[in-house]
Design brief:
Elements lengths: L1 E9 L2 E7 L9 H8 L11 E6 L7 E7 L4 E2 L3 H11 L3 E5 L4 E6 L5 E6 L30 E4 L3 E6 L4 H13 L9 E9 L2 E8 L3 E3 L3 H15 L6 E6 L2 E8 L4 E6 L2 E9 L1
Parallel strand pairs: 2-3, 4-6, 10-11, 12-14
Antiparallel strand pairs: 1-2, 1-17, 3-4, 4-5, 6-7, 7-8, 8-16, 9-10, 11-12, 12-13, 14-15, 15-16
């Protein structure tokens, strides 16, 4: 079986995108794992596979999101930007299982996405213990308390003094599987550089250490605003291993707004 695909990336977070709007494709977890494998001859592997289906509620497209391990998830910020760029529309709405995301592509190719309101209550993240304070929870003896945020998928954010990638490598895989998270969680480590500038790294459930995680950057911006304060008209600059995102958190004006690049790599056909 052969299947057409497009390879895109957002800050090095790469995606195999399959267009199932005209020719439907239903992929099994095993087929997703095959296409996402870094040794696949045609795709070169990916962090996430995105399967585009006809819109269900007036949007441009419905986006199914699969991690490289074959699991399906509800949100992917970098993937949303990649699909918005691939559609070639100045304005579009991308539907996911979690929400409808309004996207804008400017003349320079930067993609802005209205990510919506974060979820901050324990039951919405979700966690196994609803009595905890999600904005101050000890998850590891060697780490400061975490702030928990859902952007349609669960995130834990730790503010560390330096080198967030080193923290992600050392603690990420362990914390993804912490017993507090019934659906696992994405683990973000953030170092504050100034009032409007941080560096960060993410260990992503189902994918591992990534060059960039869009929803992780959004969750980290919300956590930064809660911990340090951030004016709703100011963007936070987040330097990720793969590049830079700019995110604004305006809870009274729609929630989280993400801005960053997305790049086309190539289009081809893959063997399953």
């Amino acid at each position: 079986m052969e299947i057409a695909f497009t390879k895109m990336n957002g800050l090095g977070n790469d995606f195999v995108i399959i267009d199932s709007r005209d020719v439907p494709h239903t992929l099994t977890p095993e087929q997703v794992r095959i296409l996402a494998d870094r040794n696949h001859a045609q795709t070169g592997g990916c962090d996430q596979l995105l399967n585009l289906r006809p819109a269900q509620a007036g949007g441009a497209v419905f986006m199914e999101i699969y991690n490289s391990d074959g699991s399906q998830v509800d949100a992917c910020g970098n993937g949303t930007r990649a699909v918005a760029a691939l559609l070639g529309l100045t304005h579009s709405i991308i539907e996911t299982r979690a929400s409808h995301l309004v996207c804008t592509v400017d003349e320079a190719g930067m993609v802005s996405v209205e990510m919506g309101q974060p979820k901050l209550a324990a039951k919405d993240i979700p966690v196994s213990d609803l009595t905890i304070n999600p904005q101050h929870i000890a998850l590891h003896d060697n780490l400061p308390p975490a702030l928990l945020v859902s952007m349609g998928n669960p995130h834990a954010v730790f503010f560390v003094p330096e080198d967030p990638q080193a923290y992600a490598r050392e603690y990420g895989d362990e914390l993804v599987h912490h017993s507090l998270f019934p659906e696992q969680a994405n683990i973000n480590f953030v170092t504050k550089l100034s009032d409007h500038h941080v560096t960060m790294a993410t260990w992503e459930r189902g994918a591992g250490l990534t060059k960039a995680c869009g929803t992780g950057a959004c969750a980290s911006t919300v956590a930064f605003a809660l911990q340090y304060g951030l004016a709703p008209d100011h963007e936070l600059q987040l330097d990720l291993p793969g590049g830079t995102l700019f995110i604004r958190y305006a809870p009274e004006d729609g929630g989280v707004f993400m801005r960053g690049p997305a790049s086309f790599e190539f289009a081809s056909r893959a063997t399953l």
